[in-house]
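Q: Hi! Curious about what Transporter looks like structurally. Here's the sequence.
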Amino acid sequence: MLLCGVLPALPLHAAGTGNGSAGGSQVPSPAYEQWYTGSLISPSGALTQKGVFAWEPYFTYSTPTGFLDSGGHGQPIHDGMHEISNFTLYKYAITNAISIQTTPTLSYGWRKHGDTTSGAKIGDVPVDVMWRYLDADPRRLIPALSIFAGVAFPTGDYRNLGRSEDGVGSGAYTFRLALTEQSTYVLPGHHALRLRVWGTWRHALGAARITNTSSYGTTSGFRGAAHPGMYGESGFSLEYGINQKWVLAMDLARDWADGAYIHGRNAQGRLIRTTGDGSGDWMVAPAIEYNWSPRFGIIAGVSALFAGHNTARVLCPQFAFNSVF
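A: Let's find out. The predicted structure is below.
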């Protein structure tokens, strides 16, 4: 299945006056309050007030526009997978500095001249605990720093597939780790500029037992196991406040992934031992936000892969509704 980046967006609104607002960002002056929804890709840190709940559904359409080979050269893609998906963020503040979140994804895919998925598919479900270990102090140019760690549970279909398009899971528990930075500045003309910088890392905690057709490219009759490769993402985002309600956003991110190691026997009993090629991409995601209150807003934009190797070049229009209670 096509993905619009290794780590989907996890933005939260940030009212930003330092008075316990839900989003966790602060602006340099108590008299100035910028409302944010959050950029499309950048992960947000822990919520700032115990008992706050955030809910943000994302809706994405991804369409392949080509393939980048091992040398980074563009190649045409024949009958690539199209996908619509709903990614929803649920986040709850356990304390003023610690939050827990989960981000289930529901998707449906099809090929113009081939099969579709057998129905709406649920991917692997991650659960993360995040801790903001340094609060922002804009007057001293100190950013907010957060760390989160968690596990993705192998809930997505990955083996004994009736159709190869149904492979949306990894079959392995996956450890997740991320570091995030967030800082806000006031520019001339009294416009807020928010910067986020992040890095993520994912590592499978074990092997996936695979049989027959699987999300690892095996076919009917195969018996064996797959060890998913490590993968991650790093990037930064900028959000520029046109006024209190309207914000321009832009993300730039770099994804990377090691190839999976597969071993077992095919339908003819032949021993198979292969390691997939690593892949990587560069992605840009411009967007516009509108917030009609400190706790409710929408964002719409598009993410596009413009460089990389061994990866599909994908265009992903998307929008989200953000709410904090």
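A: A fun detail: The two ends are 33 Å apart (CA to CA).
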